[in-house]
């Protein structure tokens, strides 16, 4: 949706800055370098669950940012072999934490009422180690500091001590200001700490600002806290060519600044507790596995969601939407899902239909038509519920007391319908009411998913507002995002004006600016101050529960605001981007970041949200966007139309790139299964597959899909070639498998890239399942399969492997062994003059019932065939192999480098005319 703050439309002007200054915005952070003397550990003991519990006492009180909390409770536990938790809170009073019912986890011991009393289990206070299988926790008692080390190599992963020369304090713990730091080696590469648009690429850049606080500021703004809060980072270190990765999560939903200086990192948090989780890795994939095992595995996505999606804010009536669908068909561009922004609504109110522009009988007829094809329909839902006495959704909300309060009354804000109240998703009654409203709407319009937007939460006004008595608000003229309520600032509470100003919106804006006043109250007295950044997360959970309860189908939810664990319920798009070449480039880094955050179903608005893209930019954007996990074209109300068929050149690029995506749908869907079971990102940085190569650590202009498909797009205007970095090994052009690149070292290659061409390469040692493709995933899914086997060129004993997961994608669960799925491992070897390819099938009945079979095998990197071709299926020789045909072509090596890559003669072999049932084990072999 469009921007709801001054910050969103463009970089700040002098006038805007002046206005914000008058409103009390601070631009200079005057934090003292050192605050206090830290804490002293006064006792520590073992707990019955195998952890440690200690008590800390402040050494010297001061009033910088408020008084110190005098006594703290320290709790440390190795929760698994790879995960260590360090929890520090007030020893005497309960403090806000991310709710345990939203993000399930172990509960720390209850607070001790007596500090430092005599106990039998007390441990000595001298420096001591508490060792687990992979990680070691060490502490120093005065001043208290802690460190976390890797057991295998002794690396210090986190060290909170502050020396005299350090520009940061020892531990600081006040009601509204918490500070802790860690030393870092200068050669560490850090990733994460989102959501923000990072102009320097995926690797964190020293002295860039990293503020975490969910905000409706458009993604075109750089280094600013955006829609999500993910206070985790992955640290990748390389010692003598050997890499090891770990991750650190600070599970805290309060606003925070994180200062990364290259050799240190400091957290400055305005509330809550320190609840650190350390994930040992040691590979990037292992880190994400361990992280998502804790925060929740990524949600399984339905098969159709990996098709192409088309959306626009400004499809004024149903006939426009119908035309869009038909024009995609005419242009022969694949399309699975058509979306509506708020155009379908009556007065922009949730769960309604505009009776004139989207009359229900005609809409239902349209949905019957596209559903029969296999297409899907998704609409937007914003959290703001219009204040309107004749609006049933609002009436039922008031009756059920579901809204966030201010001084006992529903807090009043303004979004698209005008005056709104915001549902409180921390309230169980709200979750029930929300589910009922979704059920009612689904009976009105059988949508196939929901798009929850503006849930940071966005408010066009600031402060405490009332509905004006003497004018209509909004009046229907001018931009809808201009506040028209009567509002006054609220700055007389510590919640609305905390002593430490985080760098909100990049300018230290008040934390209640263009959102809910932070002194507003949720269920059970929870302050918006604490719960602000989990609003979208809590809405995702409620929406997921509602959709799953409708028909028992697998939900699809797209959420703009995210938090730790959101990927367990929803997909994400990167918000309001700009139609510029820079934004195209930034989209790759943001996508890769969300893979780290456990939200693998992610993509950006293809061609840019606003303003009008150039034809060339849209060509290049669909060539990248066709390989986003979530692939959607979306544009702004005020922009010209930019559907992919609007330019013939873009249509050609779309047919080319999306055509390949639709052939790769079984590969994407198998990665969806891998993400759901292990957390592995669908789109990955190159270093995920090659962690020992430092040259890849900041590559942000190429990416991998899974471990085997590399996309190297053109990201610059006027370019018809691309300089791509190839890690060691053999890479085959997926569009022309006779072309190969072989290198023994990371090596840049100039690739031809005319306007309608995107360079995508398959890596060696892989077996990639593909199908024929099609105009819609439902049809493409039922076409015969091809297996692409990629052997490395120039070696003797060749191996390759791959896998394939197939299931009934409507089922809420995505797993093997339920009678509605088939999982297959593929293996291939080439040695002693013989090539062998075979499958190992689990639960083959589902694939057999669907009639899936393999019609072709493409083998790359061998010496062709010299006879003795055999196929066995379930142990029996296959008859009728006379129909099988062979075509061979010699590989062309397109790189002229002299880096030593072995470019000996090898062949591409096309074996077709097969009819191998996917659901049965087969063995295929032949002589080279």
TrEMBL record:
GO terms for molecular function: carbohydrate binding; hydrolase activity, hydrolyzing O-glycosyl compounds. Residues 298-671 form the Glycoside hydrolase family 31 TIM barrel domain. The keyword Zinc-finger does not apply. It holds the Pfam family Glyco_hydro_31_2nd. GO terms for biological process: carbohydrate metabolic process. Residues 679-768 form the Glycosyl hydrolase family 31 C-terminal domain. It comes from Nicotiana tabacum. This is Alpha-xylosidase 1. Belongs to the glycosyl hydrolase 31 family.
């Amino acid at each position: 949706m469009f921007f709801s703050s001054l910050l969103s439309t463009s970089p700040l002007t002098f006038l805007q800055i002046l206005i914000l200054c008058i409103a009390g915005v601070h631009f200079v952070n005057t934090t003292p370098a050192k605050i206090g003397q830290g804490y002293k550990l006064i006792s520590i003991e073992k707990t019955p669950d195998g952890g440690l519990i200690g008590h800390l006492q402040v050494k010297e009180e001061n009033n910088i940012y408020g008084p110190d909390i005098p006594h703290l409770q320290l709790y440390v536990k190795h929760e698994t072999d790879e995960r260590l938790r360090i929890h520090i809170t007030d020893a005497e009073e309960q403090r806000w934490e991310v709710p345990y019912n939203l993000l399930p986890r172990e509960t720390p011991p209850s607070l001790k009422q007596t500090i430092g009393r005599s106990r039998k289990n007390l441990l000595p206070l001298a420096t001591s180690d508490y060792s687990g299988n992979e990680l070691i926790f060490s502490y120093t008692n005065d001043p208290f500091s802690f460190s976390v080390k890797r057991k295998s190599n002794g690396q210090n992963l986190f060290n909170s001590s502050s020396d005299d020369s350090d520009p940061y304090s020892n531990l600081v713990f006040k009601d509204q200001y918490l500070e802790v730091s860690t030393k870092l080696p200068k050669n560490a590469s850090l990733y994460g700490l989102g959501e923000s648009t990072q102009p320097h690429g995926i690797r964190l850049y020293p002295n860039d600002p990293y503020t975490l606080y969910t905000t409706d500021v458009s993604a075109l703004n750089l280094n600013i806290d955006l829609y999500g809060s993910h206070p985790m980072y992955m640290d990748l270190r390389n010692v003598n060519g050997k890499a090891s990765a770990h991750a650190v999560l600070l599970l805290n939903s309060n606003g925070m600044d994180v200062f990364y200086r290259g050799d240190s990192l400091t957290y400055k948090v305005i509330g809550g507790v320190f609840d650190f989780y350390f994930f040992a890795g040691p590979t990037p994939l292992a880190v994400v596995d361990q992280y998502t095992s804790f925060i929740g595995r990524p949600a399984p996505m339905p098969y159709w969601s990996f098709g192409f999606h088309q959306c626009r804010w400004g499809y004024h009536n149903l006939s426009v939407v119908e035309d869009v669908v038909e024009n995609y068909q005419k242009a022969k561009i694949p399309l699975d899902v058509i979306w509506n922004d708020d155009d379908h609504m009556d007065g922009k109110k949730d769960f309604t239909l505009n009776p004139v522009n989207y009359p229900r009988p005609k809409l239902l007829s349209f949905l019957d038509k596209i559903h029969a094809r296999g297409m899907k329909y998704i609409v937007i839902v914003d959290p703001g519920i219009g204040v309107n006495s004749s609006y049933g959704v609002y009436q039922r909300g008031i009756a059920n007391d579901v809204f966030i309060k201010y001084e006992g009354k529903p807090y009043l804000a303004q979004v698209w319908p005008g005056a709104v109240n915001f549902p409180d998703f921390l309230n169980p009654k709200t979750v029930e009411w929300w589910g009922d409203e979704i059920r009612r709407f689904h009976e009105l319009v059988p949508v196939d998913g929901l798009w929850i937007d503006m849930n940071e939460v966005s408010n066009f006004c600031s402060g405490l507002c009332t509905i004006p008595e003497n004018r209509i608000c909004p009046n229907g003229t001018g931009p809808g995002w201009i506040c028209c309520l009567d509002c006054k600032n609220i700055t007389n509470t510590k919640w609305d004006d905390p002593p430490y100003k985080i760098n909100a919106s990049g300018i230290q804006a008040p934390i209640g600016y263009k959102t809910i006043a932070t002194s507003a109250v949720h269920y059970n007295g929870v302050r918006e101050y604490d719960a602000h950044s989990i609003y979208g997360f809590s809405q995702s959970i409620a929406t997921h529960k509602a959709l799953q309860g409708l028909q028992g189908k697998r939900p699809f939810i797209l959420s703009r605001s995210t938090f730790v664990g959101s990927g367990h319920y929803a997909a994400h798009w990167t918000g309001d981007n700009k139609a510029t070449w820079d934004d195209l480039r930034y989209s790759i880094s943001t996508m890769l970041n969300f893979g780290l955050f456990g939200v693998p179903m992610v993509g950006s608005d293809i061609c840019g949200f606003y303003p009008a893209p150039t034809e060339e930019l849209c060509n290049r954007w669909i060539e990248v966007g066709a390989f986003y996990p979530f692939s959607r074209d979306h544009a702004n109300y005020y922009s010209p139309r930019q559907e992919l068929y609007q330019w013939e050149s873009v249509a050609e690029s779309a047919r080319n790139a999306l055509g390949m995506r639709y052939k790769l749908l079984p590969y994407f869907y198998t990665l969806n299964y891998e993400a759901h079971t292990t957390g592995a990102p669908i789109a990955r940085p190159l270093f995920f597959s090659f962690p020992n190569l430092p040259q890849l650590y900041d590559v942000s202009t190429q990416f991998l899909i899974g471990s085997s498909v590399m996309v190297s797009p053109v990201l610059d205007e006027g370019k018809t070639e691309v300089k791509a970095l190839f890690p060691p090994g053999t890479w085959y052009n997926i569009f022309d498998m006779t072309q190969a690149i072989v290198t023994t070292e990371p090596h840049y290659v100039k690739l031809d890239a005319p306007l309608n061409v995107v360079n995508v390469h398959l890596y060696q040692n892989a077996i990639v399942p593909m199908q024929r493709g099609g105009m819609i995933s439902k049809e493409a899914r039922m076409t015969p399969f091809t297996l692409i086997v990629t052997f490395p060129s120039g070696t003797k004993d060749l191996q390759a492997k791959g896998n394939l997961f197939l299931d009934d994608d409507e089922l809420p669960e995505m797993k093997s062994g339920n009678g509605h799925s088939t999982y297959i491992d593929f293996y291939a070897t080439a040695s002693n003059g013989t090539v062998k390819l075979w499958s190992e099938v689990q639960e083959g009945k589902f694939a057999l019932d669907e009639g899936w079979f393999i019609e072709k095998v493409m083998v790359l990197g061998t010496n062709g065939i010299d006879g003795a071709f055999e196929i066995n299926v379930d142990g029996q020789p296959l008859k009728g192999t006379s129909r099988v045909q062979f075509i061979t072509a010699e590989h062309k090596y397109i790189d002229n480098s002299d880096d030593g890559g072995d470019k000996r003669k090898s062949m591409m072999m096309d074996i077709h005319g097969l009819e191998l049932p996917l659901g049965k084990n087969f063995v295929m072999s032949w002589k080279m």
